[in-house]
Amino acid sequence: MIQCYLLDGDFKETTHDDFSKIAEVVEQNRLAISAIPLEAIIDILGQLGKRILKQSSLNQYQGISYISLWLRKDNLRKICELNYSNLDYLDHFTKINTRLEMYAQPRGIVCHWVAGNMPTLAFFSAVQAILSRNGSIIKVPADYRDLILNILDLLNGIETDIDGNIFYGADIVRSIAIVSFEGKNQLLSAGLSKAADCKLIYGGSEAIKTIAALPQKESCETIIYGPKYSFAVFDQEYIESEQFEDALKNCVTDVALFNQMACSSPHTFFFEKSKYSIEDVADKLKTYFEQLPDNLLYQNKSQWMAANTINERARYLLSSDTGIVKSQGLEWTILINSESSLEEPIFGKCLFIKEVDDVRDTLDHITRKVQAMTVCIADQNDRREFAKDATYRGVDRITTPGHIHDYDLPWDGILPLNRLVRWVILKTEN
């Protein structure tokens, strides 16, 4: 059975045996969003960002204030320019040479499989479809369903005037369906897949393999955001600079956000040998963990996360070759070892730190599974060369302290809006 929480602009729970009715409604309603000029969509989303800030009930979710900043009109415009090169392509056939015109038409219905590791992920996924003027069917984890429904309810009441024409956020909302169903139900999973003109998939290895293998339209585009790993490196000059303390403070916030469950959450930090011992660095990190605000310090831990933390702490406490600095409770943990490797995530603000002779030694650990690296190298030319080597080996994003979670596009090496449209051409006589 499918539970549908938003359909045809109606925020009411309904049940369905299959996706035929849901897909039919979204298909009909996506015509209205496809008729909204891109500038009007950007203005409506910009207004939404301001309304989100004023909605106190949303403040319980981490990342909400960032959504408001991300929805600034100038930021959305830059994102579209990066993806489309020319915003006119979204609104009408536009000349690319004397005899050829091009238009970016929406693909149709985008079906989203959203992972449960980040509360704001479903919304960011939805905005990608909105900015490409597609309809959406979004399978949302139960824990974060209310968040996206509340945001879309705010969108429902927004309108904008472009050159004397009124455009409505309600038309965007009517192009979106929010659903849930048991993931193990292969029949319903296949039904959602077959409704898709594009699939946006977020999740772990098994989920990705399962969803990608579902039957689908031959014309369906599939965009996959699979499991990723993130870490940080610091060179000696940076460690011994005035920037180091602020960088550590910001990096601790990066670790704490989303309880280290996001693919962009760093798990291992490498520090070049410097005037500070690795134990000195651990003490500095300890100070900043202790200064975290309560909403980041005291986050709920699942049973398996707590068990992993306890087991890892015990392993380090029993070893003579490792070090540990930790909170009295299970709030945070710093684990020290000398193995030059990326550690398996423990999550829940459990950070591995290591000392290396040269930050370039860490390049050997990079695979295509590394999403982001916070790279703190003082000399900017050296940092750029390091970034060139790291991204060649597989890293998608080189970031700065405090910004590893920023939802910059490209993401995972993908310009998604570019792939959420069909690039069509019109040949002219002259």
Automatic annotation (TrEMBL):
Gene Ontology MF terms: acyl-CoA dehydrogenase activity
InterPro entries found in the cross-reference section: Ald_DH/histidinol_DH, CoA_reduct_LuxC
Origin superkingdom: Archaea
GO BP terms: bioluminescence
Matching Pfam families: LuxC (PF05893)
Coiled-coil stretches noted in the UniProt entry, renumbered to this chain: none
Keywords of the record: NADP
Protein name: Acyl-CoA reductase
Taxon lineage: Archaea, Methanobacteriati, Methanobacteriota, Stenosarchaea group, Methanomicrobia
